Predict the 3D structure of the following.
Amino acid sequence: MSNATFVVSYALTSLSALSKRNCKTSRGCASMADLTPLFKPKSVALVGASSDTKKYGYWTAKSLIDNKFTGDLYLISKTAAADILGRKPYTSISDVPASIDLAIIGIAPKYILPVLQECADKGVKAVIVVSTGFGETGPEGKALEKEMLAIASKAGMRIMGPNCMGMFSAPASLNASIIDLDKGHMGLVLQSGNFGIDINFNAKKRGLGYSGWATIGNQIDLRFADFVEYLGQDEATRVVMMYMEGLRVSSVNDGRDFLEKARRTALNKPVAAIKIGRSAAGARAAVSHTGSLAGSEKVFDAALSQAGVIRVDSPNELLDVGEAFSRCKPAKGNRIAILTDGGGHGVMATDTAERFGLNALVLSDETQKKLRAILKPHCPVKNPVDLAGTPEADMWVFDRCAEVLLADPDVDGLVIVGLYGGYCDLSEEFRQLEMDVAKSLVERAAKSDKPVVMHSIYQPQCPDSLQYIMEHGFPVYGAIDAAMRAMGALVGYGARQERIRKELAAKPPQLPADRHARVRAIFDMARAQTRVNLVETEAREVLRAYGFTMPEYGLAKHADEAAKLFSKFGGSKVVMKIVSPDILHKTDAGGVCLNVASEEQARQAYDKLLGNARRYDALAEIYGVMVTPMLPGGIECIIGSSFDTTFGQTVMFGLGGIFVEVLKDVSFRVAPINVPEAEGMIREIKGSPLLEGVRGQKGANVAALAEAVSKLSHMVTELADVAEVDLNPVFATEDGVDIVDARIVLRPSNEM
Amino acid sequence: MSNATFVVSYALTSLSALSKRNCKTSRGCASMADLTPLFKPKSVALVGASSDTKKYGYWTAKSLIDNKFTGDLYLISKTAAADILGRKPYTSISDVPASIDLAIIGIAPKYILPVLQECADKGVKAVIVVSTGFGETGPEGKALEKEMLAIASKAGMRIMGPNCMGMFSAPASLNASIIDLDKGHMGLVLQSGNFGIDINFNAKKRGLGYSGWATIGNQIDLRFADFVEYLGQDEATRVVMMYMEGLRVSSVNDGRDFLEKARRTALNKPVAAIKIGRSAAGARAAVSHTGSLAGSEKVFDAALSQAGVIRVDSPNELLDVGEAFSRCKPAKGNRIAILTDGGGHGVMATDTAERFGLNALVLSDETQKKLRAILKPHCPVKNPVDLAGTPEADMWVFDRCAEVLLADPDVDGLVIVGLYGGYCDLSEEFRQLEMDVAKSLVERAAKSDKPVVMHSIYQPQCPDSLQYIMEHGFPVYGAIDAAMRAMGALVGYGARQERIRKELAAKPPQLPADRHARVRAIFDMARAQTRVNLVETEAREVLRAYGFTMPEYGLAKHADEAAKLFSKFGGSKVVMKIVSPDILHKTDAGGVCLNVASEEQARQAYDKLLGNARRYDALAEIYGVMVTPMLPGGIECIIGSSFDTTFGQTVMFGLGGIFVEVLKDVSFRVAPINVPEAEGMIREIKGSPLLEGVRGQKGANVAALAEAVSKLSHMVTELADVAEVDLNPVFATEDGVDIVDARIVLRPSNEM
């Protein structure tokens, strides 16, 4: 991008505008990729089918046939003379006497280009390349991928893969993988087939299946954003799940496209993700592994959270959440009742509640009274409700207590923990009773508008009663933290939706109409001088152009001017700072004088600052000395912005001083954000209670602070030139926000 | 305790002295309880044996017989006419024509007393009461327990239970439970039989067993401390594990006895525990459930950490750790190598490392070079070492890489993650290869002095190769976080031992010889006035008596005296504070004047303070006004002490101001502690980098700070009268520690 066009590459009021107004992703327009040929193809060709039972081409053919694909299936084999699995193969795809929606290609890389061309010529709508040996092996493979993409793009054909393990689609009964996948309600998109196997082992054990399942491999064409968007509108999918190693982006627009599509999906459907590379060492390992440029993990985490994605850490945790949404309705609030027949399990569940945002409240007197009428005096009824040995005498206490708890208007969800499913071992009578009570619990849960989840130490044994509950009712987990994580996800869903809704409904800040011209003048000046660092007076003018209220200031070019400026500002104390494009760290250079209290002191300060600057850097160009009134102080904050290689412009907030330096207590968002998200990022830092005012200190005007954060985020989104903004410190006061120091760095011209 | 004896109830130099010098636990002397009759009985009687296959008395008899108890077994049944399981029962224990070491009693509570008496008369050494219906049901049950204890104590017979699920001992092949337990190397003590079942399900799946296993129920006699101590010296036990709901204590000496025994055990053997009731809501639930008085969770956590106990949160986590120590040698340091055949799994393992204190370091150039000679160019070798598809071509890369990594002197342990165990599905050749490589890996691990743990997504399927590794070599986990938790425990063991060793080797602080008399005079005065609050001048004298350097001060009784004191302190600024036993919160009462800079100001301040005090509380008794030099400032800290109902005197450290008020950033220890533990508690708070000096501020003398914390901890340990000490603020400077304000509260006389 040339210097002439560096300002205002795109003007957005919110992230969602990106995909509406811009066609900027690396693959052309960000409008929805049509994945119907993948998930609901009318006809499928398997290229590389084989009758050799040791070959991938055999296993895949068998999988497609055994799973009873609903459309027409054609096997393609250059070499096979005889039938494959009772079907006559075609020598090439062009021989197939019908149109093909989807081609699954499992042939060696050296044969790929002609086959792709053949597919393109045939009018195939989408191909899945399952073979390995492409970009993941080095530069040659990457070059091959480019050629593949060129063929496909020209024909309007979409590519999934290469280097993937295929896909599965429940509506089409399509299993284009060699993994034994069942139908269900989870939509799972994976960047690794291994994790697909890993998760599926446990999914099968839990009786869970997929509406859609896709391993997207090297993502040379179709990517996470496309699959998330498709599964988001797919009726059979109740929850969208991802295993991510990193986003593959050609530019930050791809990152932003993903964020926006995930967010739009999360408005209508729960979305959960593992993203590896969380720790510093892990991020380093991820770069080695995926070969991708790692953006900031803090920003990735913020982006997922902004998009309303539930982030989990392991395959089992992902499945905990997937199971919850496969089998439960979301909760309306976070107040839960815990019903237990093992005191210790009840306490452990209560311990775990907080970690997942759950409130195990003390039940109302009325509810306690009702429970007391059911239970013996030694049974605790405050919450957890502890049956403490009563089920052996009367199994129906489970059901009667569940009835009371689900009817309590203060309770948003019910967690049953302990030993259910183990009573059947005591006698045949207990076995029958346990099943009867299970049926009643299932019915009760179905009638209620509140979610029910269960933990049982007998879950791994899968007795009939638990099997029944899982198949017909609600999830049963073998570990308490899994059950609580599940309830936490159910409870958090509404809050995540509400957060997105509020943010989208909020008005972006009003920005002055003349801002572009004013900023352009400043940037032009800096670029003309081949500078990327704005001096503080310039940075202040950029902020003013965007409507930030900045204290008055003047630039003194000699000592007398400094004295005059002192008087001009009413004679109260002033701060004086050296203004030089060559002196970035003013304090280190002795370039700041605080508490200047008279004209005489102003003159002295001027001379001193100039002297210090000369000593610091004899060749530094000096524009003068900035004079500005001392600000009365407030709570020290930092508001900043930096450019992330995955998501582009971001905004950062933190409390200043030790909070940033010792505790690294800062929050991030992908820019732009409106006031609701800005308030969220202010509230989420650990030190935020400080803003309410503690130890006799006055509190801060959080609304004004949020307004400033939001405004900065919109500013950097408009100004593609800006690499970094650092407002540090900012004094947050009862009345508003005072920016004490501002630093803006532009991106080098050659990067634009 | 009368007023006359309130000072120096016990004088200890360290916690370990408690059990050596004192016989203060609720059950008499704290010397080791002999659990040999429980774990290695020569003869066992089962009282309540039955031939009814639906009864506990049948199941237990069967369990004892089936598990081939090595000693003599006698079945006792009042009612059985015929043989039970082919053995002739005795009508009563007194009929048995031999001596009995251990009686297992499973009869209704109403019959318990005469049976216990009979056991006592027979000379039975220990009894296990498995029946329920005792203290856990209410006051009547509690009264019955007292009578049981009286009978046993008189006869020197020990009781385990009641309300428990029995026990298991590998050396005696004794399974006195109805649970199917296997022999192995874990010693597990549980406060809940349910959790015993829960953990055992998974232990069996993992092929793990127990050296000793005990459910200790209501703990009317034998408690955690006894079992931990026994298993600590038991040769078959490699790791001691506990499931705790809370300590049952008659006095804090029981809590301290547990801490000390756990610590002595942890010096020689790893100890791990779950303790439920961690959250506020969980603690409330635990009180409902166990009926016990809950001490502070923060203190309990500190005590476990002080004792070197690995704290985990769930049964599965406990087993992760138990498996590690059952099958591995501990690591000498925390630097680990990760070897993976799935890139994503490698990254995930790296992510998880930090959480468990592991350092997935970048491997040395030399090691990388050796690995590169084995692996293809596309395989990352920095750490994680990613085989990236090579095992399919050559399975032995696992073994060759493991050899290189175990030989690297920078590597303390090896974690293999990914897909091992899944290759066998590819072909018969691979099955054989996978087993051969497994055997070599096992051999390699056995020869190395470094631990090896494995994760495999195929672990739940338990293929032959993994089965072999688990049985003959090292643990294989099905989840990455489990593998990393295990390695974390192995790595942390040495550090925990070293911590205890250092603390025990450290000399306690030198305390002035005349401290007791000096403190006694002050306490006598307060007690004589029926006060529990010491005024600040008194608190300062107590601290001085214990060797704390306190600034000079004087007590002015009228304005002129205040002026004189000002001059006496050299004319620099002074602080003046009201001294009244009725005014505790001096600042609230307007009872503090800072920066008093002249004699005149001192006079005015005196009058002002007195006026304020009168307005605040017209009836307050006023001792005068304390005058003391202003201290120059430093890093604001808090050092405090409070009395915990489980562990007694504790000590607390935190950074002052917002760190305490906003972030609750404080650490605790059970008193007394020496300098090493005190340094540990200073370093463990999040804000501790502040003490190194940040933002141009000077750092603090951490050694002096630790000395002060240690000294206070010894002081409160000696002074059983003291309920609470609050040194707040304390200024930590480069030179030392300045105590600015001190508050001491005594325990009410009637509690002594």
User: Anything to note?
Assistant: The CA atoms of residues 188 and 213 of chain A lie 5 Å apart.
